[in-house]
């Protein structure tokens, strides 16, 4: 077989790395940016120590620029208005990134909340149970959002009423810059991982042909030895996670999230946790925070619009929602991303009903095991709690435990007609389900109407199947089709 020059170069490089590859060198430090630091260097033992020193030096340098906790940082001076408008390239880049993600998330992410966070911090530190004035906070938050600020201006003028708090993406930015310094210090390395407090950036491979395996902790059980809800296989990708249980403000007997809704100045309640994979750590960091504020449906739409970006969003009670490409990141037992599972297409009908008091039905479709245990939520139509409660089987499995998350993905009711949706053979966490027997569950309820539930059994085993059933009144014809390896 004739090989091209690119293939030959790849083979030479792979053989050279294989010859020099040794056990990856692991380094750990404490109290780096106030948390733990881990770094792994693979394939360049001679320069691994220098790479760690270079990364730590860059982290220390940028902490002096971006810290909101140090009174002597460049950002602290800028916030106090003690600047002639000439700021470092790093501070300018971070402020520009903050404003970019504020616009991209339609205000769900914001670095402009330093003053509001100080109000919450002072309320928590006072030892009293008195909450900040909610109306005053809302007015101030919306005034802050209207302030004009141009991060590209030659001289940056700091508005006196604006206090920057860049923690939402500063750690990611620092990780990106530290990785650049580490790679320069270890030019023969085949892979490097940098992790600060659970947010990480990965470059290359830990060994030839292998991906970095990353366990994702369960946000409902954020213990160091808690169970993982997924294991990812990553190459030259960054990961960041947001959560609410371990950080926040305690006022009286209540705990409030440290993440504020930028439009209200108030801690988000019943907010989901998010894990984001992106090409760079700053983007992953900002998105993880934004997804904890945005309605889940809107957050997933934002992720889907960004190339090379995937996310897993987990509601307060554990209901999971994965972006369409999340499953491709999941590691198999061999350490590589999982293969594409079998797919299924579903056609469903909302029948027309005569009468002046007709109301569009609330409808839910989900996949369950033969004993009724839900494995994947497919669709929820309807956004009023009263009528979502009228879907008792669905409500018992999904809505009751995480009403806020359900409202985050529920879509408006639909007019009578024929509709279609698809299932990729995965569960709510994006994991491929084993072949076997399953149920398509359909439940509908309508104001001034009735209630109806259909259960359509099918087998997922690699053979093409056509299954149909017909509802009596609230649901029309339901058809599902399966085919191995591709959409039917």
TrEMBL record:
Please indicate which superkingdom the organism of origin belongs to: Bacteria
Q: Does the keyword Secreted apply?
A: no
EC number per UniProt:
2.7.1.180
Which residues belong to the signal peptide in this entry? 1-21
Q: Where are the membrane-spanning stretches?
A: none
Gene3D superfamilies on file:
2.60.40.4070, ApbE-like domains
The EC category is transferase
Which one of the record's GO molecular function terms can you name? Answer: transferase activity
Reactions mediated catalytically:
L-threonyl-[protein] + FAD = FMN-L-threonyl-[protein] + AMP + H(+)
Q: Which UniProt keywords apply?
A: FAD, Flavoprotein, Lipoprotein, Magnesium, Metal-binding, Signal, Transferase
Name the cofactor(s). Answer: Mg(2+)
| Family statement drawn from the similarity comment of this UniProt entry | Belongs to the ApbE family.
Q: What is this protein called?
A: FAD:protein FMN transferase
Species this chain originates from? Pseudoxanthomonas wuyuanensis
């Amino acid at each position: 077989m004739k090989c091209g020059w690119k293939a030959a170069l790849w083979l030479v490089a792979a053989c050279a790395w294989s010859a020099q590859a040794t056990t990856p060198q692991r380094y750990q430090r404490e109290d780096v940016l106030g948390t733990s630091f881990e770094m792994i260097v693979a394939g360049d033992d001679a320069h691994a120590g220098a790479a760690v020193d270079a990364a730590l030096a860059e982290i220390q340098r940028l902490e002096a620029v971006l810290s909101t906790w140090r009174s002597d940082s460049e950002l602290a001076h800028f916030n106090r208005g003690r600047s002639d408008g000439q700021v470092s390239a790093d501070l300018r880049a971070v402020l520009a990134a903050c404003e970019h993600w504020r616009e991209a998330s339609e205000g769900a992410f914001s670095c402009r909340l330093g003053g509001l966070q100080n109000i919450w911090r002072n309320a928590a530190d006072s030892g009293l149970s008195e909450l900040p004035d909610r109306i005053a906070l809302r007015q101030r938050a919306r005034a802050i959002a209207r302030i004009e600020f141009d991060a590209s201006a030659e001289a940056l003028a700091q508005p006196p009423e604006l206090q920057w708090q860049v923690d939402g993406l500063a750690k990611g930015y620092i990780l990106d810059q530290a990785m650049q310094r580490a790679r320069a210090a270890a030019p023969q390395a085949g892979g490097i991982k940098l992790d600060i407090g659970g947010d990480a950036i990965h470059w290359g491979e830990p060994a030839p042909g292998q991906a970095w395996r990353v366990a994702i902790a369960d946000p409902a059980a954020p213990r160091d030895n808690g169970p993982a809800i997924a294991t990812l296989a990553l190459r030259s990708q960054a990961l960041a996670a947001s959560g609410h249980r371990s950080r926040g403000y305690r006022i009286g007997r209540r705990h409030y999230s440290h993440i504020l809704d930028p439009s209200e100045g108030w801690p988000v309640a019943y907010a989901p946790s998010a894990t984001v994979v992106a090409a760079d750590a700053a983007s992953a960091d900002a998105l993880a925070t934004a997804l904890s504020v945005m309605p889940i449906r809107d957050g997933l739409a934002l992720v889907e619009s960004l190339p090379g970006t995937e996310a897993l969003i987990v509601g307060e009670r554990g209901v999971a929602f994965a972006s369409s490409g999340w499953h491709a990141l999941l590691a198999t037992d061999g350490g590589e991303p999982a293969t594409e599972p079998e797919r299924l297409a579903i056609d469903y009908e909302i029948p027309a009903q005569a009468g002046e008091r007709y109301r569009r039905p609330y409808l839910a479709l989900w996949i369950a095991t033969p004993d009724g245990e839900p494995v994947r939520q497919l669709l929820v139509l309807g956004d009023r709690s009263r009528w979502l409660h009228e879907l008792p089987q669905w409500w018992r499995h999904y809505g009751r435990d995480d009403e806020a998350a359900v409202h985050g993905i529920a879509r408006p009711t639909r007019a009578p007609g024929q509709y279609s949706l698809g299932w990729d053979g995965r569960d709510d966490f994006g994991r491929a389900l084993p072949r076997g027997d399953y149920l398509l569950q359909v439940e509908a309820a309508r104001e001034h109407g009735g209630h109806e539930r259909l259960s359509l059994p099918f087998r997922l085993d690699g053979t093409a199947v056509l299954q149909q059933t017909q509802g009596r009144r609230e649901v029309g014809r339901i058809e599902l089709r399966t085919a191995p390896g591709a959409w039917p």
